[in-house]
Amino acid sequence: MERSTIVRVQEGLHARPATRFVRLAKGFESDVEIVKGGKAVSAKSSVKLMLLGVKEDDEVTIRAEGADSIEAVEALIAYLENPLSGVDEAAVEAQSAPAAPSSAPANRPAPAGGTGGLKGVPASAGVALGPVFAHFPAQIAPRNETLAPDQIGAEKALFESAVARLQERLDQSLAADGMQDSDRGIVAALRDIAADDALRDETLDAIDGGLDAVSAVIAASSRLAGEFRALDDAYLSARAEDLDAIARQICLALLGQEDARLDDIADGAILVAEDIGAWDLARAPLKRLGGVVCGHGGATSHVAIIARTHGIPAVLGLGDAVHQLREASEAAIDGNAGRVFADPDDAARKRFAEMIGAADREKEALKAYKDLVPRRADGKIIQVAANLGALEEIEAAREAGAMGVGLFRTELLFMRHMHLPSEDMQAETYATLARAFPDHPVIVRTLDIGGDKPIAGVEFPEEENPFLGWRGIRMCLDRPDIFKVQLRALLRAAVHGNLQVMLPMVSDVSEVRRTRVIIEECAAELAAEGVAHADFPLGVMIETPAAVFAAPALAREVAFFSVGTNDLTQYVMAADRLNPAVATLNDASHPAVMAAIEQAAQAALAAGIEIGMCGEAAARSDLIPEFIRMGLTELSMSPASVQGVKKQLSELFSGAG
Ligand code: PEP
Ligand code: MG
User: Fold this and answer.
1) CB 3.0 to 4.6 Å from 420: which of 457, 538, 579, 600, for a disulfide?
2) Which of 302, 614, 616, 637 to mutate to test the pocket of ligand 1 (most atoms within 8 A of CB)?
């Protein structure tokens, strides 16, 4: 039985639609294949399906053989022609496979020299001196043993039981209490790959050919990973890492070994690694970490953001030089200058000990400002809030005394999963955030993603200038299917606290108006469905020159402004924020940028709305007095900066600053 059709699935068959399709296929006993361009693969393997690269408008054939072949072909064709009908969303959602975010791009190693030590990217400020915890999980080498024919059956059984043990372990982790949603997503992704037929079949074939199980797993996974890497799709290429990760776990199970665990890290140790994946990072005892040094990663990588949030000094992007630290017993790191010293000599140890002592004393003294509420002479409270990217960071923000959240970057939520996060999952995340700061505003920014960061379920066009392209509010307005899920989740979460919502990359008033129409549509739908929801104040980021010039008009439409100096600076100065060659121009204190901020502030004051700042400049002690003079009433920053800024404001308002 076979039938052909034209695919109407908007993003093609990868990520979530692939999971749905495979689950549907697995519901039938028949062998089912999907054929595109003469190539046929099993419809029951999401790995093979993703590799087939089926896109919207492709012609495919579904072929089935077995007792229920007619039903199977009809159901799968119906799904391809009308993907939104007849699928049990909840069941698919519960089973679908989120994934670890792809690792940060490698930075070119900077040459060692200058003031000594190894030079990397200063990714999180602070200094540290501590024992080295080298985390370089050994590559598992294929043994390439040739099996005798009578050993093959037993070797296959060993492989099957290793996979079963691994799946059991992953299932246990998933069932365990206290696991964060983000971790759960990563584990679920790995479990699904472990269960996928593509890896299993290819490994069994290799064992049938006489190869030992470990070598067979390595051969099969590297071949499949290679196919993913070769795809012209950043998101799918990144799936190769998931395959590598699961193959490694299967091999360890076969060898009866376990990976070194970061839980064993000593207090104050410097974690040294080639790269730290989300899987490890989710489990790292962050409170015990003295510092982080990685061969990969840059200042905007996931590791860097987490390190900054927790006030852990970090130097990343050392390249191959990181291997020089593997055998060191101690390391000193300067996260401000981006330098690392392996086994520092007495003079360096002394210097670092003094710097650390001074920093510790300052940190201790700053704790006195944790609960301070900065007030201007006229009594107006200045909110010193936190920038967060994940729920794991709430604790650090509360411990720092953050007065709410001035920017919750929702991108990570989307990048961490192999599918678009569901409305329920998003609503729970935003509600948890709102509940965590019952006395303060929590500002959630709608999805701000561009062509440089892949997320599952959205195909980004190749762009010459991604920073001037299809990102932020522009992408969301073009994709109401994605935007509405987020807005519905925000409306639902608003019931649980003082939630506010802000739009990124706004450059025209019409973007706000169009968003409002969608919000009203979502609210009406929720009302009709009898789902509890509440309205929220809507604000915009001021991060494009257009938003500055249009500020008077924007101020009439929204409840607040928040200045995004990271982008505003790059656009005002026409200096790419990621390009070190123009780093000196990329400075928020430039008079042109300061004039832009002042212009936006005047528009906000004239319209009687609040203006705050969530770009990195909000924590710059040299600029804070200016921002306060301009009338900004909220400064939002990494939690590690909160107490220092509160201290500065208290001195400023008491006349001491
Ligand atoms: C900004 O541009 O200043 C900002 C806060 O947003 P992001 O850094 O996430 O682009
Ligand atoms: Mg920005």
Assistant:
1) 457
2) 614
